[in-house]
Amino acid sequence: MIGYVTLGTNDLARAAAFYDALLAELGAGRAMEMERFVMWGTAPGQPALAVILPYDGQPATVGNGGMTALAVDGTEKVDRLHAKALALGGTDEGPAGPRGDSGFYAGYFRDLDGNKLAVYCYG
Questions:
Q1: pTM for the model
Q2: Are 70 and 78 in contact (CB under 8 A)?
């Protein structure tokens, strides 16, 4: 159901470098690139993630309560991606680990612009 998600940035080059390194861990590469945005994906027709300079010319801001979640296929990938995001300068919003007793395992972080993301799996 999700086609793609865009995250606002005020520094496209810095955000692109962060996501180049982070999303490479998932096998994603740049799928589309223009003057105001960069998009990553794993295959045509699959969900994608983009960073964008706001079209209205106003500064990008972080929405309270908004979050983008990246699905992976195992707890070790959750651990690896969460650690990679922090190593790239992201901030911790909740360490990787189980949440409840439903088999949900997740780590939470903010990117360099303050956008909140989760990386998760069931297992």
A1: 0.93
A2: no
